[in-house]
Structure formats: C-alpha cells, structure tokens
Amino acid sequence: MLKKSEAKIIEAGFSVFSANPTATLADVAKEAGVGRATLHRHYAGREDLMAALAMVAMRELDDAIEAATKDAPSYTEALRLSLEAIIPLADRQMFLANEPLDHVPEVLEAYTQQLEETAEAVEAAKEEGGFDADVPTAWIVQAIETLTYAAWTVVRDGDATPEEATALAWRTLQSGLTGGAK
Amino acid sequence: MLKKSEAKIIEAGFSVFSANPTATLADVAKEAGVGRATLHRHYAGREDLMAALAMVAMRELDDAIEAATKDAPSYTEALRLSLEAIIPLADRQMFLANEPLDHVPEVLEAYTQQLEETAEAVEAAKEEGGFDADVPTAWIVQAIETLTYAAWTVVRDGDATPEEATALAWRTLQSGLTGGAK
DNA sequence: AAAAAATGAGACATCTATGTCTCATGTTGA
DNA sequence: TCAACATGAGACATAGATGTCTCATTTTTT
C-alpha cells in the first residue's frame, strides 16, 4: 500500500510526465505539493520513480481488464472488452511506452507476463474461431496493441469518442476496413 | 545538397540515435568521424540536428514511396506497395517518432503534408472500393501508420520477414484476422 | 603555388537536473 | 503530553551535455 506522500507523488508523476515526458523531478514534486527532498526519500531517482509508475500502471491495467472481462461470454469478447477498458487509461500511461524500463527486472517481468497473458487470451480466442489459427499469435498481439494505440490517438485528437474508436479498432482487427465488412 | 561532413553527420545521427535516442551529440560526432565543433558548425544544436534528420527522413520516405508506386495499377495497390516500401526504412527512422519536433515549423509542415497525401490516397482508394467509404479516413490513415509500426516491430524482433510482416499488416487492414478471411 | 575555406583537437564557461545534507517545523501515534 | 517520525525549505556539491572560442593543420579552390 502506498503512503500518503507516495500516492501524491505517483499521481503527479502520471499527470506531469503525460504532459511532458522530459519533465523534471522538481516539476513532479511541485505538482505533488511535496518537497523535492521528500520525493527523493521515497524514490531514489528518476528511474526508480518511472519503475514505480510502471508497476502502478500495469496493476491498473490488470484491474481494469479483470473488471471488464469478469462476465465476458467468450475469450474473443473478453479481448474486445479489454481493448475498450484500456482506452481511458491510455492518456495517463502512454508516456511509459517510450521510457527505457528494460533495466528494471521487476518491471520487465511484469510486462512480459502481461504480454503472455494477452497471447494466451488470443490462443483461446483462436480456438473459439475468433481469430484465424493460421495467423501467428505474435502478430495478433502486436496488432491489438498498436490498434489500441491508434484508437487512443484518434480519441486524444478529438476525432472520435472512445466508443467509436473502440468499435473501429475492433472492426479493423476482426474484419478489416474493406467495404462490405461489418 | 549536403556537403561531405553534413552527410556523414546525418548518417551517424540515424545510426546512433536508432541505437540510443538519448545519445550525445559527442557520440554522433564520434560516429561520424568528425570533430564536435564541426558538428556544431553545421547544426546549431540537438534540435537543429533532429530537425535536419527528420527532413531527410521524410524525403527518403517520399522517394521510396514514389519509386514503389510508380507503376501501381490502383490507389489501393499503391497503398500496399507504400507500406511495403516503408518497412526497410523504419529501422533507421523510427526514433524520430518520439522526438518533439512540433516546434520546428518546417518539419511540422512537411509532416502535415505527408499525412495529407496519405489521406488523399486513402480517399482515392475508397472510391475504388478498396476501403469502406463509411469508415473515417482519419482512422484508416491512423490504422495504416500503426500497423506499419507493428510490422516493423515483428521484423525487428525476428518474428517475421519483411514480406511476411507486410502481408500480415495488409491483410489485417483489408480483411481483418478472423478465420476464413484471405 | 597561393589564397580561401573547412576541419580537428582541446580548453573553457555555462547551464540544468540530480542527489545529498541539515535543521526547523509539523504530524502522528503511544 | 511526549516521543518518534515525516516533511519542507533551502544550501550545497556534482556530473553531464551543451555551446563557444582559438589555433594549428588539412583540404579545397583559384
């Protein structure tokens, strides 16, 4: 469980780094309403803070997906619901995608596990007929990730509502964008 | 036309920044076999160098697309050929995607124009029946971009050849990944 | 060959983010 | 209430990247 100051710092981190990925630790401390020294007391440096943010982010993702897919009637539908559930979180987390976190074993392990879980869900969906079994799972996972990113960007740019973007991404994934597909 | 030193610096920039986006200007100068002062004589600072790299990258993209689509029988096929042509360039250019270049009007304008050209190509493909006219062009453009990125990543990770990745990305875009689609 | 231009190497100053430390103040819990 | 603990503010030191300048040397041009 996070202490009071830690919670404020983490929240400020999401907010500040989302607006500016190269923001200073001083910026984060200020936004958190906390002294710079206090930030250092809880997180040794930038890397530690980023790693902590990543761990929180992944937990948030896990929770959101868990909640969204609780009553899913199928693995395929669960993947669609997951995609939908992720969009609202993307705004505060997307900056982490461009951070070099490979050096932190804890983060790397958690990330790898999340990818594996997605891969397993895709495999299960394949067996249901939700995806073509001849298409490599690695590609489907990658396509899901990048189309989620695409959905987030169009929402961010005001070109679509989260619902519209989710629908477009899912349609693309399932049946493509050729005329006639539905 | 680029002078001798400039060409070496630009090439080193692509190489060094691809490997490490936070590399130093000193690193670039060293890789270019050029003095640090010389680099500064041609490019005032990091931003200038990045902007120059971006301009070169976009010209390379333009040229590659131009060459690849010269004899394309349709706008739709031209888009597929473009996607294929971009993959080999992605390795050296992808780092630019995470650089904040919005502040350089020249770059911003060129980038905007490239997006517009893609949008026009998509509109034309729509009229051919290559894409569903009911799907927003903005989404199709975004989907093309992100699936191109996805294709690059699987190639980079050794999970597919460029040809395989291109085929998967194009299939996804056209008919999705549901079983039965071809 | 002579003049002009470009370069390399290095010294130098600067700036900024970072990390550490201290001490007075405030907060919490026993 | 009192003691243990956390915090804020600021001073301080450091490290790394950046930008500038000089001067001898090399390269290019005329």
List keywords for this structure.
homodimer, 182 residues, mainly alpha, Arc Repressor Mutant, subunit A, 2 domains, DNA-binding
Give the proportion of residues in helices of chain A: over 70%
Please state the overall shape of chain A, judged from the principal axes of the Cα atoms: elongated
Q: What share of the residues of chain A does DSSP label as strand, in percent?
A: under 5%
- Beta-strand segment tally of chain A: 0
Note the run of SSEs of chain A as H and E. Answer: HHHHHHHH
CATH class descriptor name of the largest domain in chain A: Mainly Alpha
Ends of chain A: how far apart?
46 Å
Q: If you compute it from the alpha carbons, what radius of gyration of chain A comes out, rounded to the nearest whole angstrom?
A: 18 Å
- Which secondary-structure class do the elements of chain A indicate? mainly alpha
How does the major sheet of chain A shape up? none
CATH architecture of the largest domain in chain A: Orthogonal Bundle
Largest interface: A-B, 37 and 37 residues
Low-confidence stretches of chain A: none
Number of domains of chain A: 2
Predict the CATH topology of the largest domain in chain A: Tetracycline Repressor, domain 2
Oligomeric grouping of the chains? homodimer
Number of alpha- plus pi-helical segments of chain A: 8
What would the average pLDDT of chain A be, to the nearest integer?
94
Instruction: Please name the fourth-level CATH homologous superfamily of the largest domain in chain A.
Output: Tetracycline Repressor, domain 2
